[in-house]
Design brief:
alpha/beta, 8 helices, 26% strand, disordered N terminus
Length: 254
């Protein structure tokens, strides 16, 4: 990912693009600016981490990029699609078909099996899943022997693997991950990060991950560091120590 002030729609190879995105919350004296004219591009088949001090706008950035929230000004593109041109119904359909989500809390449906959770996006979109492909994805995340188990019968790491399989299965344009390792122990967290890295390297998926953990962000091709709702830095092939130092500098300057 790179910061850019380029106007207009993204080029073909961009998975997503934000152009001068501003987002505010609240009213009057309580009004808070979460994003201040952020412009950035997410190339296809890359792993991008988004970091920054608490309150820097990380989650707001993810929500706007994923079409979960509309910016106050600026434009968000998914491929060549301008999200502001879509109705709420069209935006919902786009999220179901072209965007995958992985959350810290897994967000699995307790009553459904692993296989049913993975195929849920297809059911919501009104499409029929390719069973061979779904079985392949479940096997790829290491859960072939647990396809008929329900979430309560799985460990936290296994539940997150189901969430990743669910996000990957529809072959979305971008997978957005919001603190996907925050609820996991260190060993399991690294397994999940290696899996996300593999999704990019072997399946040529695009992953954007919000994280507060420099070690997690070091798995990415590039890290976007936010401060006060703006892009403060872009680090390529970032090392954990380098990221920790940069975020520490920003926290100390607040």
């Amino acid at each position: 990912m790179r910061t850019t002030d380029r106007p207009g729609p993204p080029v073909v190879q961009d998975a997503a693009h934000l152009d001068a995105v501003t987002k505010r919350f609240g009213r009057g004296g309580a009004r808070v600016t979460a994003l201040r004219g952020v412009s950035m591009t997410i190339p296809r088949a890359t792993f991008t981490a988004v970091m920054g001090p608490s309150g820097s706008g990380k989650s707001t950035l993810l929500h706007c990029a994923a079409g979960l929230d509309r910016p106050e000004s600026g434009e968000v593109y998914l491929g060549g699609t301008r999200l502001s041109a879509l109705s709420e119904t069209e935006l919902t359909k786009l999220r179901r078909s072209r965007i995958g989500f992985v959350f810290q809390s897994f967000n699995l449906v307790p009553a459904l099996t692993v296989q049913q959770n993975v195929t849920l996006p297809f059911r919501l979109a009104g499409s029929r899943p390719d069973r061979g492909w779904v079985d392949h994805i479940i096997d790829r995340v290491g859960l072939a022997g647990r396809a008929r188990h329900r979430p309560a019968e799985l460990s936290g790491g296994q539940q997150q693997r189901v969430a990743i399989a669910r996000a990957v299965a529809p072959r979305p344009d971008v997978i957005f991950a919001d603190e996907p390792t925050g609820a996991l122990d260190l060993h399991t967290a690294h397994e999940i990060l290696r899996l996300l890295r593999d999704v990019v390297d072997t399946a040529e998926q695009t992953v954007v991950m919000v994280t507060h953990d420099p070690a997690a962000a070091s798995y990415a091709d590039q890290a976007i560091v936010l401060a006060d709702g703006m892009v403060a830095d872009t680090l390529y092939e970032p090392a954990a120590a380098q990221l920790a130092e940069r975020v520490g500098q920003l926290e100390a300057s607040r």
